[in-house]
């Protein structure tokens, strides 16, 4: 799997993914061309600190991962801090697989695992990745578990989709220890 920053020329593809029922159920996003440009344009142009990554499997687009430092979004950080301590530099991700034919084939966990692994390199100050997921979205939290994240909390958070209740699980993965830290019995995060 590879990825690159989402660009404005990718918006028609993203729009088609957001319209897919399996995506629309959990992303609850306006799908007009104007709404996609409004909501994804700032990150694509580097005007917003989040990273929207277009993930490819081989040469074929597979999905989207949004990655950001929680401290760049103080209201979101404060909401998560009610459920758990949020270490300085913590990151979060959100994700989707666009093509319904590729759902349920183990690609979600691979995609999450790949981006999390890259996060340790791309964001050297990040001690962990925290990911909230609606408790009702079993496929999503199972993908996180298969990608190596562990459930650390559950509680009420504002749902992305107003039809959902507030019940969420919070998952975490810590930066792997360096060989020196392992030898000394220390870990980061």
Automatic annotation (TrEMBL):
Q: Which Gene3D superfamilies match?
A: 3.40.630.30
- List where the protein spans the membrane: none
Q: Where is the signal peptide?
A: none
| Annotated GO MF terms | N-acyltransferase activity
Please give the InterPro entries that the UniProt record associates with this protein: Acyl_CoA_acyltransferase
Pfam families (alphabetical) = Acetyltransf_8
PANTHER family reported in the protein's UniProt record: LYSINE N-ACYLTRANSFERASE C17G9.06C-RELATED
Q: What is this protein called?
A: Lysine N-acyltransferase MbtK
Which organism does this record belong to? Answer: Streptomyces cacaoi
